[in-house]
Each structure stands twice: as C-alpha cells, then as structure tokens.
C-alpha cells in the first residue's frame, strides 16, 4: 500500500485521501497488487467512521476483502465494537452476505462480537441478518458457545433471550467439536452460576433445553459438578431442580424401565448397565486428563511446575537423609560412649543403610537421583523462555551439584563413593540421550514399520 494512503487511513484524513486520488485516480484499484491490506482494514482498526464512509462509497468491494490474517473490515469493526462502522458496511450489504462472511477458522463478524461482548453490534447484525445466529465456527462453536467461553455475560443474556424470542432454542443444544459440549456443559464447567440459572430457569426455553444432554465423554452437565468444591452445591441444586441427572442415573433409569416390561431381558439389561457404568468411569477418568484444544497450555505448564517442584523437594530431602538415617558416631562406640561390637565398621555422618548393604544404598541413590534430576530437567524445560534465564539455570545447576556433594559425602566406602560419583556425572547426559531417543521413537512410529511394531509390542506388555 502507498505510504501516504496508509497514513491517511491510519489518521482518518479524508482530505489527504482526495488529494491522493486527484493525483492517481486508480490508486484504490492498485492496492490489491501491492498489499494484502486495503485502506478499509486500517481505518476499521483505528475506528475512523468518516474515512470508512468515504472508502465504502468509493470502493464498496473492500468490505468483503480479507487481510493476511483472515479478517475482513467487518470482522475488525465487530470485534472492536465500532457500531457506526458496522452500520455503514451493512448499508452496502444488499444480499446479506457480509453478516455471514467467514474469516479465519470460519468465524463470522457475529462470532467476534459475541466473544468480545459487543451487545450493540450483536443486535445490529442480528437485525440485519437473523440467520447469522445459527452460524458455527470450524470447531462447531455457536455464538453462545463463544460468549460463555469468554465470560461475556451481557452478551449471553441477550443471545439467550434472542433465541428464545425467535424460537431457535435448538442453538442452545448444539454441541461443539472440542468434546461434544453444549452451552450448558460449558457454563457448568466454568462455574458460571448466573448463566446456568438463566438457562434452566428461563420458562420460555425450559421445555426445549436438553439438561441431560451427553457429551463425547459420556458426561451430562451434572456430571461436571463436584459437590466437594466451593460453590458447586448451589449449582447442583439449580440443575437438579431443572430435572438434571448424572449419566449413570439416566442409564439406571433406562434399565429399570426395560426390566418392568420384560423379564427375559433381565440378564442383558444388567450386563448393559454394568458396561455403561464402566464406560462412565472411563469417561470420568478422561475428563480429568489434559485435552489439547480444551485445556490451557499455560495451566498445564503451571501444574507440571508444581509437580516437578514437589518431586525435587522430596527427592532432595530423602537424598540428604536416606532410610535408616545417618551414623551419629564412628564404629566401636555407642551413642552413650560404651564400646559396641555388633555394628559394622563405619564413620560418623555416613549412611546406616550403606554400612549394612552397599548394594541397597547404591540402588537407592541411583533411582532417587534419576527422579531428582528429571524433576530439575522438567523445570528447566518449562522455564526455558522465562526472564532471568541465566540466573535460573545457575540456581538449578547449583542445586544439583549440592545434592551430588551431599549424597557422595554420606556414601559409606571409597568404591561406593566412586560408583555414585561416576553415575551422578553421567546422569545429565543419559537423560538428554533418553529424551532424544524417545522423540526419535515417536517420529519413527509414524514412518517406520519397526517403530510401529516395537510400540505395539510394548503396549501389549504394559
């Protein structure tokens, strides 16, 4: 884009725009040949209404053009809440295509307005194109899904009332592709009490809202409520008051109904119920597992850092104070100063377990050190791009060498100390090689028959 045209778009200078067009009447037509953005993109970001009006008048085709990031001017204005700009663009949208224009990940302008809570823009778009409220993203998310995910409560209330008035309650029961979750599933998981109460307590949609809808993991909204957690008692009461059940209770009710009609199907129903209960347990287990696209990588990193810190603390402490403790005196004398002939030869400050069995002590140190170093390695990986990186790495390295010095010092004999010293020195290299080997194995799993066979064989053993 011409630098002067970009400046005019960024500052909203309509006079400069006319001067540039007087110099080169084809300026707006040549933008597509030199840039992935047009002046309308820039003006929409800056919110210059008058400049947008002039560009739309001169070049109305610009309203549907996407920039390199997959955003049209309508997407940008909707996300930023520029109501007047949205109205101006809708005036040239005679066939109502602009309201449902799909950008990156098939998001429409209404999706962006809902995710940012732009209620005025939502109202304007829906008035112009009521069908736009039914559009879904590439992940199967409706506008209400996005509003719930982003905790935009004013937008949620407006959209729920809107679908109720227009008799489109089926939108509330639509499921996304992340895990087959409905709006009620999402609101329950995010503990949005007011949203859950607004959904199940709305008399207009009460009969059409599927409170017992089951997602891809076999869970109802009530299954996502855990009464032992703070505030979940209230949400459970709200859902149960609307007739919500846990998935296991729904299955049980179905089996009871079947048994009342036919005695011959008792055995089959019992087996079905048992299988479904087992499936329910499995689904619950999967619910707590990390799922890409559903769970935040930042939260996963935080959890891993906490676990790694706990492992490092435990292994460091037990390394300094191994099982059976440390001798308080040298061999030949008891704690009270009396001679002793029942103890193995030892020095004060050495491991008691190592004095009785050097093999057990080495065995203990090896596996404890593996756990300790792997926890430090995990912390190093998870904090790789943190500020003060050099200082953090020095701290981790100093902690490892302090651990090595302590463990070597309590070793009971020269050969034991030698074995442990060599192992602790090569352990970092062994862990690094093991990580590279594991990654290579994952790679050949998809490309090499041997890798596939090895992993299949390992799966059978485990």
Account of the protein in words:
This protein is mainly alpha-helical and 462 residues long. It has a domain at 297-461. The protein is built from 23 helices and no strands. It has helices spanning 3-11, 14-23, 27-34, 39-46, 49-58, 73-80, 83-91, 109-115, 119-128, 143-149, 153-165, 170-173, 183-189, 193-200, 232-241, 247-261, 266-288, 297-320, 352-356, 358-382, 389-409, 414-447, 449-461. The longest helix has 34 residues, at 414-447. It is elongated and about 100 Å long. Mean pLDDT is 80; it is low at 252-273.
Quick take:
The protein has 462 residues and is mainly α.
Question: What is the element layout, followed by pairings?
Answer:
Layout: H1 3-11, H2 14-23, H3 27-34, H4 39-46, H5 49-58, H6 73-80, H7 83-91, H8 109-115, H9 119-128, H10 143-149, H11 153-165, H12 170-173, H13 183-189, H14 193-200, H15 232-241, H16 247-261, H17 266-288, H18 297-320, H19 352-356, H20 358-382, H21 389-409, H22 414-447, H23 449-461
Helix pairs in contact: 1-2, 1-4, 4-5, 4-6, 5-7, 6-8, 7-9, 8-9, 8-10, 10-11, 14-15, 16-17, 18-20, 20-21, 20-22, 21-22, 22-23
Pfam families: Ank_2, PGG
Subcellular location: Membrane
Organism: Pyrus ussuriensis x Pyrus communis
């Amino acid at each position: 884009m011409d630098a002067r045209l970009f400046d005019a778009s960024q500052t909203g200078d309509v006079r400069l725009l006319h001067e540039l067009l007087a110099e080169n009447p084809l300026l707006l037509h040549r933008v597509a040949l030199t840039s992935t953005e047009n002046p309308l993109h820039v003006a929409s970001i800056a919110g210059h209404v008058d400049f947008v009006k002039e560009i739309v008048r001169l070049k109305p085709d610009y309203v549907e053009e996407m920039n390199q990031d997959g955003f049209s001017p309508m997407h940008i204005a909707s996300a930023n809440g520029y109501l007047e700009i949205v109205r101006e663009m809708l005036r040239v949208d005679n066939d109502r295509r602009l309201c449902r224009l799909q950008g990156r990940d098939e998001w429409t302008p209404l999706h962006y307005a809902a995710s940012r809570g732009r209620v005025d823009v939502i109202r304007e778009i829906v008035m112009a194109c009521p069908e736009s409220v039914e559009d879904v993203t590439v992940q199967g998310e409706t506008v209400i899904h996005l509003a719930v995910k982003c905790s935009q409560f004013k937008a949620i209330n407006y959209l729920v009332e809107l679908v109720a008035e227009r008799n489109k309650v089926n939108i509330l029961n639509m499921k996304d592709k992340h895990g087959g979750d409905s709006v009620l599933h999402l609101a329950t998981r995010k503990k949005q009490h007011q949203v859950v109460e607004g959904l199940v307590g709305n008399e207009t949609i009460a009969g059409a809202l599927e409170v017992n809808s089951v997602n891809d993991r076999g869970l109802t909204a009530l299954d996502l409520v855990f009464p032992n957690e703070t505030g979940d008692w209230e949400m459970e009461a709200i859902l149960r008051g609307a007739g919500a059940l846990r998935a296991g209770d729904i299955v049980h009710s179905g089996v009871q109904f079947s048994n009342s009609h036919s005695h011959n199907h008792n055995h089959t129903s019992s087996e079905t119920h048992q299988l479904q209960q087992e499936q329910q347990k499995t689904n619950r287990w999967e619910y707590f597992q990390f799922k890409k696209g559903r769970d935040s990588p930042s939260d996963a990193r935080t959890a891993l850092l906490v676990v790694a810190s706990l492992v490092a603390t435990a292994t460091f402490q037990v390394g300094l104070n191994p099982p059976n403790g440390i001798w308080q005196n040298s061999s030949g004398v008891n704690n009270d100063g009396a001679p002793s002939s029942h103890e193995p030869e030892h020095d004060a400050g050495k491991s008691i377990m190592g004095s009785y069995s050097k093999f057990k002590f080495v065995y203990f140190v090896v596996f404890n050190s593996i756990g300790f170093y792997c926890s430090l390695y995990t912390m190093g990986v998870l904090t790789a791009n943190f500020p003060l990186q050099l200082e953090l790495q020095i701290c981790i390295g100093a902690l490892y060498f302090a651990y090595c010095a302590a463990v070597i010092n309590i070793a009971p004999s020269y050969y034991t100390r030698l074995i442990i010293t060599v192992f602790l020195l090569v352990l970092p290299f062994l862990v690094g090689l093991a990580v590279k080997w594991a990654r290579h194995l994952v790679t050949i799993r998809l490309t090499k028959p041997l890798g596939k066979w090895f992993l299949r064989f390992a799966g059978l053993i485990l």
